[in-house]
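The freezer alarm interrupted the setup, so I double-checked each line after restarting. Inputs confirmed:
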Amino acid sequence: MTGLFWILLCWLLGNLLSRLCGGYVSGNVIGMLLLFVLLSLKWVRAEAVRPAARFLLSSMALFFVPFGVGLMVSYRIIAEHFWAIVAAAGISTIAVLAVTGRTFQWLNGKNDAGRK
Amino acid sequence: MNSELLYLTLTVGLYCLAKALHRRTRIALLHPVLVTFLVLILLLRSAGVDYAAYREATQLLDFGLGLSVVALGYLMYEQLDRMRGRLLPILVSTAVGCAVGVLSVVYIARAFGVERTVMTSLAPKSVTVPIAVSIVEPLGGIVPLTAVVVFCVGVFGSIVGERLLRLCGVHDPMACGFALGSAAHGVGTARAIEMGAVEGALSGLAMALMGLTTALLLPLMERWCY
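Predicted 3D structure, all chains:
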């Protein structure tokens, strides 16, 4: 239960900070950063947060089902741009895979070589 | 009240059923989330329920989605030890992945003559759905479009990922995991966990960092780059 409290508190503070910076970044993203910082500084024990965090992370897919069902109202816009969306998303995904994979391997290899 | 409970129970129940089906068949395209989307749409359509009523009834799940974004902070914390001494590859790859992911999809869509709201809805397509949704909403994108495209990108990336990385000469298990998480978020991470513990861990980290970086940079790119 304490885990849920910390997560809720981070979200609440995140929302406050989000409002202070004019809604530039949403409160839950700031909350995520806050939770990371609190855990890293050992202000909050990881064991306390673990059960709640595990549950939430494992049910993430269920939580966004209602958004996907929104397709029943916005399918027209997808049908209209179907091939553009498929091409853009497909090519871009391949690009991200290749570029991040190569970049990470290159810098990580350098890193290990430097340490030897 | 009863109809609210009915929609919520129906959603969770269908998701559990779809998960069981997925476990049996192991077909990547029969992803439980996709099956749940489709069956729910068909059911609601044939029962004549409009989306607004369904949305109203399932607000509890929205709340869970917000909480699960915060919980990603825990996922990042778990990788703290692995991040030490690897900050350079991790941060540079995240920044590069974020820029490539957003700009390539936006520019290709623009070449097709797609309108701006659709471009914005597609922009965070490599980011985990809950964060993508909270990025797109204030920028005036179409949230259901984002949710569906982002999700399909995840399925696509997790199917082609391993082969494509091998084709590109990426052998480092850390790099493989990181690339899968960057391109295919949660679905890619599920695949990476099957490949190995190192791949899974780096993939989860990449997913959280990509979400964070894109949330910070996308509003700027939206203003200046397209």
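Quick read of the result. Chain A has two domains: 1-63, 65-116.
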